Amino acid sequence: MSRSRRHKAFDRYRTGRLRAVKVNLANCQMPIADCQIEDSERGQRYFFQSAIGNRHSPIYSLVKWVRSWRMYRMVMRCLWFSFLFAVLGWAVAPARASLDSQIAEVLQDKLLSKATAGIKISRLGATADKVELLYQHDAATPLVPASNMKVVTTSAALETLGADFSFRTQLILHDGDLIVIGDGDPTMGDAELLKKAGWDVTTVFSNWAATLQKQGIKSVRNVIVDDSVFDEVALNPNWPADQTQNHYMAEIAGLTLNCNCIDFYVKPAGGGHLVEYGTNPPTAYITVKNTCVGGRENAVSAVRQQLDGNQFVLSGTANAANVEPISATIHDPSLYAATVLAETLKAGGVNVTGTVRRDRTRRAAWAEAAKNAAKDWSLLAVHETPLPRAMARGNKDSVNLYAECICKRLGYAVSGEGSWPAGTAAVGAFLTKLGVPADQFKLDDGSGLSKANAVSPNAMSAVLIHEFYSKNNKDFVASLPVGGEDGTLKNRFHGTDLRGRVIAKTGFVEGVSCLSGYLSARDNNWYCFVIMFNGIPHLSNSVAKTLEDRIVKAIDSSVAEK
Question: pTM for this structure?
């Protein structure tokens, strides 16, 4: 075939009038490539050895592009990184989407239709700068924290006072008087706490009586209590006025005994007959009018007739002796503790010839005497309780009195004033130090019983994250309830694979339900979560708790999908 006919065929190929082109690029090192064009209209095939020699040819451009080694490497890199990003995106996006969708489903629950929900979830890395935010919903909105407030209070105390801080209740002899210098120790005579060690409400006082006996002291004049470590405001004005006789709303004082409650135990004597009863501790500090009788139901109550007195009425019916105590709050806990001390001394062979009274000047006088080594003042005994031990009882069992004592004691340590204003100011200073904006918290007490408290999920999360990386991590985390195992989480996450992996603080007051803490997830990472519901319907906390648990489960399941 002549060269002109081949060129005409190639021109027809370039203008699109030929149907097929077969290009052999197997050997790109050659200066040219073979090109075979089929002219179906004329039944001819044309073989070109010089077709790509034309710089205007598209085949020429194609071969030249492929020949470029740098371009080849760039293409391969792009393909590799595209593949890599696609794989990573597939791994992360479904888990994140799953968490978001599962929480969105919880927030659509009718229980929360008129409620406010604040949520924040973070993955905790090897160091604090590796924390990754996974989810947040209204995280900057201050909400009533209920007992989640204890997390903030105890964290502030731990970081400000230190893990080596101890409450020190001192027993001093001066001029024939036995003086008790209270230090706000919430564990003094706590029957529930002490029974684990085989102690009773009065064991410390019995030990003191034995100490006096060993020193040859057979008699003292007055038993004097100084509770000036705290102010004289025993009940927060923003606590519910109709709940002052409930054990969780005991008065707060510088000297405490049995969580400032007295425990009643009854023993039925037959239907219609008055029950027999006893108290722990047994004491003449109270009087009791017994109208409780044996009956078919157990419905016993012990109520103070007046809020500023200690005259009780024991009423109702009982069909069996109670194992758990019927606890009632005491008025003026410091004098209650001092009276029981005097009674225990007498039972232990140390006579008390005078009276039991209060003198709030003795703490300062003793400090001055100790500084000057005055010989007419003698320190007989000191009862010490480490802060972490008090934190554990207060947080695990959510004991309000513990958190309030810690709050006021923090205030005293920082400013010399053991009050709610001073204590909450110290806690607020701690939050500010963590970088929490002032408009994201408002503090009124230490336990969260007051609805005047408001803390944002951001603030709560900042505290939890700080403690996770703190040198005090072990003491703080050990103070929180463990899901399915102890404290207020003993009956939650029980029988699930989350048992033992959720470490968190519960919180509830009327209309409020919260859960904040840590999750050791199935991907071997730790997660921090804050879940706060405000404005839930009356008597709906049990349902609210299931919603909180669903969110925790969603965190665990979403990260397991990776």
Answer: 0.83
